[in-house]
Specification:
The protein is α/β, with parallel strands linked by helices. About 35% of the residues lie in helices and about 30% in strands. A 6-stranded mixed beta sheet has the order 5-4-3-2-1-6, with helices on both faces. Helix 2 packs parallel to helix 3.
Length: about 130
């Protein structure tokens, strides 16, 4: 695994015209070193009125409490603005970490079948790919 693969990466798509969902795709290790990047993208995704955000964790290899903080904050922001945020995750280790931290079932997690429906189709418009590190 190269250093580039290990760093957390975020890609955000613009809301689509049909469902209005914004998909935030995460890659690599999501920890305290990448919190600033994750927070910036999730804040942008939850900034509007009634934000509908899907956070795709299928590309994540590791997440710790530093990465879970921004997820909790974004979920609260979405709820406060009359919207919602859900997760797509199929990795049993990541799911266990989210469950042990108490994020699930508060934040809904899409099943693998539903993940296929929500997945890449929701990402339209320009995509932003940024790499960890300031």
């Amino acid at each position: 695994m190269t250093l580039r693969q290990r760093r957390g990466q975020v890609r955000t798509g613009e809301p689509d015209g049909r469902g209005g969902r914004t998909v935030v795709e995460l890659y690599g290790e999501i920890d305290i070193a990448t919190t600033w990047l994750l927070t910036r993208h999730l804040d942008a995704a939850t900034a509007g009125d009634r934000p509908q955000v899907v956070v795709d964790l299928r590309g994540v290899s590791f997440i710790d409490s530093g990465g879970m903080g921004p997820l909790c904050r974004a979920w609260c922001r979405a709820q406060d603005r009359g919207g919602d945020m859900s997760l797509i995750c199929t990795d049993s280790r990541i799911l266990k970490t989210l469950r042990l931290a108490g994020l699930t079932p508060t934040i809904s997690v899409a099943t693998p079948r539903r993940a296929v429906r929500l997945g890449r189709r929701g990402v339209v418009g320009p995509r932003v790919r940024e790499h960890g590190g300031k």
